[in-house]
Amino acid sequence: MRATLLYGKGDIRVEEVPDPKIQQPTDVLVRVTRSCVCGSDLWPYQSAPEVEAGRRIGHEFIGVVEETGADVATLAKGDVVVAPFLWCDNTCDYCRAGLNTSCRNGGGWGFNGVDGGQGEWVRVPQADGTLVKLPVGEDDELMPSLLTLSDVFSTGHHAARTARVEKGSTVIVIGDGAVGLSAVLAAKRLGAEQIVLLGRHKARTDLGLEFGATDVVPERGDEAIAKAKELTNGDGAFHVLECVGTLGAYETALGVVRPGGAISRVGVPQYTDGPVGRVLFGRNVTLTGGVAPARAYIEELLPDVLSGAVQPGRVFDRTMPLAEIPEAYRAMNDRQALKVLIKP
């Protein structure tokens, strides 16, 4: 089969690799029908050291079950399924607590002999716990929105949930990438009344306005903080969703959060040190967020996607075949595309 491999900074290739096989009785084999490039894939694309043997990459996919292991009980050949961006058993104590990202028997796509999502096939470990069946055909028009359940819409929802967004809330979202826009949509879905989006790419912030943002702040740094505060009666917001992952974005979040509020960080942090002392402590600010347990959210979000009440798939602004994955990475890295959907 063909799969995507990362060989180092800026070096992404589609190559022939061995076809996956059932290895454990809890495995299934999935023929991938939709995958995509994630903004978090761009961090290693921009910085990974060169390696002789490329590593598998990609963690978001929808597909069709083609073969099942002997112990698989809830899935059958022909089922259309969506995979969260980490696999899990969905039965251990962490999973039962809604923290599937810490599953005792789980792991990540593309590691330890498990296929990446940007390929033609994936061996799915712990398939009963990992995969969610979809009540649609493999080419349903809802596929782009259903694919966002794998990561970006679930991550945006995680940001809103952990920041305690509720009906009537004032929310500030930092970042106009796919996760930031998904966070706008998630906050609106939870009933936020005012949503201030910090972003400077007009095509993206225009979509953010359609998703529910009430205001857009294109400035950055201190100017962005001043403008966001001006739009929120001088105080900032109780609910701040940081969807970028840079130190600058976090410092902006510190500048716009109200005393007693919460900052939810869901952008993968690209820094190890940052202000967490009295700037949080003295104002009783909660720092939350983290890796989104997408598996815990998919079934909650799925009905609204199926009904069309939300359309998170609009974050995909380009579709490419698997063979053009290198161009997909370049387009997203150069901000020529927001998020690229891949059809193997």
Describe the 3D structure.
The protein is α/β, with parallel strands linked by helices and 344 residues long. 29% of the residues lie in helices and 25% in strands. The chain contains 12 helices and 18 strands. Strands 3, 5, 6, 9, 10, 17 and 18 form a 7-stranded mixed sheet that branches. The chain has a 6-stranded parallel sheet with strand order 13-12-11-14-15-16, with helices on both faces. The protein has a 3-stranded antiparallel sheet with strand order 2-1-4. β17 (318-321), α12 and β18 form a beta-alpha-beta unit. α5 crosses α6 (178-189), α6 (178-189) packs parallel to α7 and α8 runs parallel beside α9 (247-256).
- Look at the structure and give the mean pLDDT: 97
What is the chains' assembly state?
single chain
Q: Give me the strand/helix succession.
A: EEEHEEEEHEEHEHHEHEHEHEHEHEHEHE
Share in helix: 25-40%
Tell me the number of strands. 18
Question: What is the alpha-carbon Rg in Å?
Answer: 20 Å
Please tally the helical runs, counting DSSP H or I stretches of 4 or more residues: 12
What overall geometry do the principal axes of the alpha carbons give? globular
The chain-level structural class is alpha/beta
Q: What kind of sheet is the major sheet?
A: 7 strands, mixed
Residue fraction in strands: 25-35%
Q: Note the gap between the termini.
A: 11 Å
Summarize the structure.
By secondary structure, this protein is α/β, with parallel strands linked by helices. The chain has helices at residues 42-47, 93-96, 127-130, 143-148, 152-162, 178-189, 202-211, 221-231, 247-256, 278-281, 294-307, 325-333; strands at 2-8, 11-16, 28-36, 55-56, 61-68, 80-83, 86-87, 107-108, 121-124, 132-133, 170-174, 194-198, 215-217, 237-242, 257-265, 286-289, 318-321, 340-343.
